[in-house]
Design goal:
35% of the residues lie in helices and 26% in strands. It is built from 10 helices and 13 strands. Bound molecules: magnesium ion.
């Protein structure tokens, strides 16, 4: 059934009950938002076969395009509020659109994010979402605020998502609960929005781990004008990851694998107890994995000795 662009957007993406600060939502030439104070804006695009494997369930694509953007809001300490969506599809497949919308809205509703505009075009499968959040002028969490001597932390566990993707690509779906747990980390990443906001006044710098720890911590270091030294013994590795892979492979996934959407942040050592208490208060585990040091780049150490990591993360081009 051929449907026009507006018919499809209205049918699958217009939801009633928009918040008071959406003066005009989906259906006009532009959305109009009632914003007081600073806003944080980010955009992220997912291309089939580049950012996710072809055949990924539509629900997971819809969920993911919002999750990666929520993760960027988390890394800034912002509160995500509104988003717009540009979707490019080979053909308007109703079952796929229903699934995509269900995945997107399941996460949007949990985070009180309103979809306020959309665009639909025909072409290779691509989902692009722009997110807008509010942010406290005095608590903008940036990559560049780190100082030599600050502790380096990561939330959650690392490497599960990259390992889960590798299992998915080998077609090892449903082969035991451990496989499933890792695959779910890839399919349904949990952006650390609450933790990001809790850290906004406490951390000196932050970034989300989308391309891999070494790559993303490297970006934080470059922006902060220093280097980092991290210890492999301190990497937070899940029991699932360690049960399926030898320690050196688990470590390589944790250091170089992307798509974890955890936060990597730094804080002055004097803040350590507060950081721990604040994150415990929002139910977010975090581990201190090293320090910011003079120099440039990320040094990886095992038992205090420098090692050369296997992979240094996803490259966009
Ligand atoms: Mg990011």
């Amino acid at each position: 059934v051929a449907q026009d662009e507006f018919g499809i957007i209205e049918r699958y993406f217009a939801r009633p009950g928009a918040s008071r600060d959406v003066l005009v939502g989906i259906g006009d030439d532009a959305a109009v938002l009632d914003v007081a104070g600073p806003i944080a804006v980010a955009v992220d695009t997912l291309v089939e076969n580049v950012h996710f494997p072809s055949g990924l369930p539509a629900e997971a694509v819809g969920y993911r395009v919002l999750a990666v953007n929520l993760s960027d809001m988390a890394a800034m300490g912002a509160e995500p509020r509104w988003c717009t969506l540009a979707l490019t599809l080979p053909q308007p497949d109703e079952t796929w659109l229903e699934g995509f919308a269900a995945g997107l809205f399941s996460l949007a509703e949990r985070h009180n994010v309103a979809l306020v505009g959309g665009d639909l075009t025909r072409g290779p499968l691509t989902a692009s979402l722009q997110i807008i959040g509010t942010i406290d002028r005095e608590a903008i969490l940036r990559r560049g605020g780190g100082h030599v001597g600050d502790d380096v932390y990561v939330t959650g566990t690392l490497g599960d998502s990259a390992a889960g993707l590798a299992l998915l690509e080998e077609g090892m779906v449903g082969e035991g609960s451990t496989h499933v747990a890792l695959q779910e980390r890839f399919l349904w990443p949990e952006p650390r929005v609450t933790a990001g906001r809790a850290l906004a006044r406490l951390a000196s710098a932050a970034i989300d781990v989308s391309d891999g720890l070494i790559a993303d911590l490297g970006h934080l270091c470059a922006a902060s004008g220093c280097g980092a030294a991290i210890d492999t013994e301190r990497l937070p590795l899940s029991a699932e990851l360690l049960s399926l892979f030898p320690p050196n492979v688990a470590e390589a996934y944790a250091l170089g694998g992307g798509d974890d959407y955890e936060l990597c942040f730094t804080a002055a050592p004097a803040q350590a107890q507060t950081v721990e208490a604040v994150l415990a208060g929002v139910g977010c585990p975090a581990r201190k994995i090293g320090r910011l040091v003079a120099g440039t780049g990320v040094q990886v150490r095992r038992d205090g000795e420098p090692v050369v990591p296997v992979s240094t993360g996803y490259r966009h081009f």
